[in-house]
Fold this sequence. Notes:
By secondary structure, the chain is α+β, with helices and mostly antiparallel strands. The chain has two helices and five strands, in the order βααββββ. Helices cover 29% and strands 31% of the residues. The chain has a five-stranded mixed sheet with strand order 1-5-4-3-2. A hairpin with a 2-residue loop joins β3 and β4. The longest helix is centred in the first third of the chain and has 13 residues, at 8-20. It starts with a strand and ends in an 8-residue tail after the last strand. The mean pLDDT is 87.
Amino acid sequence: MYKIEFKPAALRDLRKLSDRIRRSEWEYLKAAIDSLAETPRPYGTIKLSGADLYRLRVGNYRVIYAIDDPTQVLTVAKVARRSESTYRE
């Protein structure tokens, strides 16, 4: 089982989203992130080119994260609504 960590920017993203989106969407997003601890590369996950990052699509939102297999740590880098700037850091 992987340990999930959040970068400070990802925590800010989540705090902003929790106020703006419907409760059902928030619960769905939260459950998807929590499930990454058991399955870090679920079906539909895409490895982003040019970086060691993965993208998980959760409805209109994207979770960008890195996986460190030897230590079994998954680091969430960004959570955002899908747009042109979602994949920029």
